């Protein structure tokens, strides 16, 4: 089978948008909404993103690992289980929020989705920024979907221990602070240890 994909050309929108790039947000938004060329480019870009996400979630199994282990077919759900089979590393930033929204568009509405929010705690009493932005972004997602917001709290001692013993040896490249921070968040999220946010508990 041919596994190559065509990449559509998305034209760069210039002229009037370039002239108002420093305009107030409301004026800029009105200009963009009335610009047909920009709207067409936006729709094309959104479709490309949605298609890319759909390719990755379309074959998600109907049963989670736990339900698959039922040897007795009577205990095994016939039409899939109601446990989450997909998780998103969710900081509440623009990238993870857009990704969650796109997954919401292509996954059946009865499928729950885990949002794994990794927060690195220091001696400061205030919650880390990623926890605050994650909870805020959670309120902006589709309320018809069951979202499992999983809080993964990591203190500095735990971070330093696993960074030195494991994480620094399994991420590549590991040459910048960003490599280290993203790699650490991914590792702790993949470990799967966390607490379900209280609003998710019946």
Automatic annotation (TrEMBL):
InterPro entries attached to this UniProt entry: Asn_synthase, Asn_synthetase_domain, Rossmann-like_a/b/a_fold
Domain of life: Eukaryota
GO molecular function, one term: asparagine synthase (glutamine-hydrolyzing) activity
Gene Ontology BP term (one): asparagine biosynthetic process
Keywords annotated in UniProt: Amino-acid biosynthesis, Asparagine biosynthesis, Glutamine amidotransferase
Keyword Amino-acid biosynthesis: yes
Stored Gene3D superfamilies: HUPs
Protein name: Asparagine synthetase domain-containing protein
Native organism: Rotaria magnacalcarata
């Amino acid at each position: 089978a041919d596994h190559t994909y065509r990449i559509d050309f998305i034209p760069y929108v210039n002229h009037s948008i370039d002239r108002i790039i420093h305009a107030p947000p409301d004026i800029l938004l009105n200009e963009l909404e009335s610009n047909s060329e920009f709207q067409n480019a936006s729709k094309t870009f959104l479709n490309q993103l949605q298609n890319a996400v759909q390719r990755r979630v379309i074959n998600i199994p109907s049963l989670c690992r736990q339900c698959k282990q039922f040897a007795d077919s009577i205990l095994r759900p016939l039409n899939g289980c109601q446990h989450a089979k997909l998780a998103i590393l969710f900081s509440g930033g623009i990238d993870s929020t857009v990704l969650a929204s796109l997954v919401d568009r292509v996954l059946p509405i009865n499928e729950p989705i885990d949002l794994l929010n990794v927060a690195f705690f220091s001696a400061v009493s205030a919650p880390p920024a990623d926890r605050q932005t994650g909870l805020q972004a959670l309120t902006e997602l589709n309320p018809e979907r069951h979202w499992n917001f999983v809080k993964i709290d990591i203190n500095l001692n735990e971070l330093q221990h696993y960074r030195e013993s494991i994480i620094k040896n399994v991420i590549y490249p590991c040459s910048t602070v960003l490599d280290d921070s993203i790699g650490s968040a991914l590792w702790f999220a993949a470990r799967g240890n966390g607490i379900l946010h209280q609003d998710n508990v019946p």
